[in-house]
Amino acid sequence: MNPGRLGLTPMVQENPLWISWHDSNWIPVLNPGNVMDYFSEKSNPFYDRTCNNEIVRMQRQSLELLNNMTGVEYIPLHVQDPILYVIRKQHRHSPTEATPLADYYIIAGTVYQAPDLASVFNSRILSTVHHLQTAFDEASSYSRYHPSKGYSWDFSSNKAIAEKTKTQTKKEAPVKEEPSSIFQRQRVDMLLGDLLRKFPLPLPQMTNNPTGVNSSEGNNVNNNHSGGTGENDHTGSDHAMIKQEPTDGGGGGGRGSNSDAPPEKKMKL
Questions:
Q1: Number of domains in the chain
Q2: Compositionally biased, Basic and acidic residues: which spans (predicted)?
């Protein structure tokens, strides 16, 4: 809808939340009895000349007649003398029913329009987005990128931040670089655990030994028996040969006796 067709002045076409109004001549004498007359001044952009208050004022009637009329009207809603006055604009349908349209508050003689809930939300959201965008732009101006080092910060253009960064760097102790990060160590441990689950280590096989004899001792005994078999057999054959040798005469000192055996035989025995 075109505001020009409604006959609105350029001042009213502006957002009423951005404007204010006051009359310096009224401020020293402003009180609850004349606050409605102060609000009904012709220079006040918040006052509608077609309201019922203007009709009652022109007829020099009491404001109590507004309850019996229908249409737009202004009523005093709250008074906190001498600093704060709240006036409500509403559309009256009957003596007991009225729809609020807007609220105006007068602080120290200056009139403002109270914002609605949607305007408050829009203002807060726009303010938040503006500050975030400003902070992001400023932070982006200090970022630097190098192919080998990656991203870093350079605050040399801002002296205050550069001095603060130097001071913090001097106070902080040098950090020893680790050969690997915590993430890398945890990742390697996880991979090793998966490999152990997929390929478990073989368990040592236990041999059953019912006789209770140590296997090493048994092996040594077997080795001794197997290794000495030839020698024992040969020795046995030597004993048999010695016994079968003929003796010279019946004397105990003959050649065929055990004491007169050849040197080689004695060493083997």
A1: 2
A2: 231-246
